[in-house]
Amino acid sequence: MRIVSLLPSATEIICALGLEDALVGVTHECDYPPSVRRLPKVTNTLIPHDASSGTIDALVRDRLATGNALYTLDLPVLERLRPDLLVTQALCDVCAVAEVEVQAAACSLPGQPRVVNLEPETLEEVFESIAMVGEAVGREAQARDVIGTLRARVHAVADRVEGSGERPRVVVLEWLDPLFTCGHWTPELVSMAGGTEVVARGGERSRPMTLDELLAAAPDVLVVACCGFDVERTLLDMPVFLALPGVSELPAVRTGRVHLIDGNAYLSRPGPRLVDSLEILAEFFTPSSLQALKS
To answer: pLDDT by residue (tens digit) across 219-230?
Structure first.
């Protein structure tokens, strides 16, 4: 089987199932495991590499308003790769090639490859996505093993944080300029890790939020996980954010409970590393419980 992955989380799922050798093409954003960076890239982006967060947000808003995609397929490369299977998603128009473009490409390619569309909005649906890919590639048993291992880790965190005391009030920010809440599976992960997300709701999309809304939430813990950014890139935006009126008076800032996460690797990608994200959050909220888990 010749597989092309059209989103990073799908690439991680395919590799977790032991099928990295079957991958013949990935997106320009696929970077885990690191060995997939050598593969041909089948997508391009309209976002400048050095764009500011505000510029990226404005470009995203403009593209979504006009119905134009941010990412496009490199059809000549895709045709040359001759895939049997395309794994994509229709959950977020910002994060991947538009579904209509993928379907059109599949119809035009020799052999008309099968398209598997992943749309998880919760952690359980992420596990279902792993099972779906497993079925599509004939690796059902491996998928069950992967899901079983991930569930065991989730249960271990839940057992350790249960009864750990007061649950901190948490806000997870997915973007800083402008401010965006987290969404989808992240509030659920916060709860499982021993916190209470006080702005966002599980299963809902991330959304813009006002500074007043953040100040009124008064989080005990603030987690910054900018979508698509690593920690180094996120740090560039932190001085402006921390200088916003009232931010320095937030309980999380006063007590030093502001945590930065590599949003490119964790929280943003609905794949196996969401469980890593859960373990990271548990360390932020209930460090003594996670230390017991590790020992």
So the answer is: 999 999 999 899
Distances (CA, A) of 158 to 150, 153, 272, 284, 287: 13, 9, 17, 14, 13
Q: Which helix (H) or strand (E) holds 258?
A: strand 258-260
pLDDT at 69: 66
170 by DSSP, 3-state: which? Answer: strand
Q: What whole-number distance in Å separates Cα of residue 12 and Cα of residue 26?
A: 11
Domains of the chain and CATH, by start:
3-119 (3.40.50.1980), 150-294 (3.40.50.1980)
Number of residues written out for the chain: 295
Q: If you search the block for the tokens 């910002």, which residue do you land on?
A: 94
Return the bridge partners of 181, or none.
Answer: 173
Residue 260 gets which letter from DSSP? E
Indicate yes or no: pTM above 0.85: yes
DSSP symbols for 9-62 = HHHHHHHHTT-GGGEEEB-TT--SSGGGGGSPB-EEESS-TT--HHHHHHHHHH
